[in-house]
Each structure stands twice: as structure tokens, then as C-alpha cells.
Amino acid sequence: MPTLNGNSLSCEEILDRYAPLVYRMAIQGTGSVADGEDVAQEVFVSLIQCDPRFADETHLKAWLIRATANRCKSWGRSPWHRRTVPLEEARQAAPPPETGGTWEAVAALPPKYRWPVYLHYIEGYTAAEIAQLLGCPRNTVLSRLSRARDKLKDALKEEWA
Questions:
Q1: Would you say 81 and 35 are in contact if contact means Cβ atoms under 8 Å apart?
Q2: pTM (2 d.p.)
Q3: What tens digit of pLDDT does each residue of 53-79 get?
Q4: Would you state the torsion angle of the CA atoms of residues 77, 39, 24, 85, taken in this order, to the nearest 10 degrees?
Q5: Sign (positive/negative) of CA torsion 129, 134, 135, 138?
Q6: With contact defined as beta carbons under 8 Å apart, do 57 and 14 qualify?
């Protein structure tokens, strides 16, 4: 069982606090509700199996975010997951209609741009925090956010016209 400051955390506590975050990231990272559920489950199983020790809740949250991002990357590289998805399944995995083209445009970004956008605009992390979570320099995160905004502007200009 993972420990925080020497105290054991229950699975229920961890799931209650962090399952929504991991689940949202996994869906965003895989582009599919079903695949997102699988990735989220793998992240929590990995957490229990490796039995890590965390200094504080920030460390635990960072571990979960990093593990989810890494799991999504490996998920996308697997030939099994590059299969063709039936149209009915793709419709079920689509974001809610109220999110419109913006959500689709963010999901269409390459992962190196999608993760910083998601972590900054959806989860509210700063560029420095994202750099630490993704293991890259802060200026790289700022550049990726800038480039992502340019890509989103181009993708959405017809919608706003």
C-alpha cells in the first residue's frame, strides 16, 4: 500500500481523490473512453503493485500524472491499439456536444502539445509545474503552449469566422 509521510493510504482514499484526474487525462491521452478506462485502471494497479513512498500529496499527484502520461504514450505505440474503431464506438467515445470543436481540436493535437494544454488550461498547472511533471524544461513547456495555441487558432479559425 502506498505511504504518505510514513502513513499508509487506503485505496479508497487515493481513488476518491485522484481517480477523476487520472480518468480525464487517460481519456484525453487515448482519445477513447474505453481505452481511457483501461489506462486509468493500469495506472492504479501499477501504483498498488510498486508500493511507492511519497513525501507529500503533491508528490503522489505528480506520480499519478506522470504515470498516466507515460501509460498513454505506450498505449498509443502498441499495434493492438492502433486498430480501426467501428463508427458506433467512435460516436460513443466522442466528447459531449457542448464542448464543440475546441475539444476536438485539442484532442487532435500531437501529444507533445496536447499534454501541456490539458495540464495548463484544464487542470490549472503552471508552466514550471508542467515542466516538472513532464520532465522537460520550463521554456519547452512555454514554447509548446505557444505553438499549441497557434495550431488551435488555425484549426478553429473557420469555426470563429
A1: yes
A2: 0.68
A3: 888 888 888 899 999 988 988 886 665
A4: 60
A5: negative
A6: no
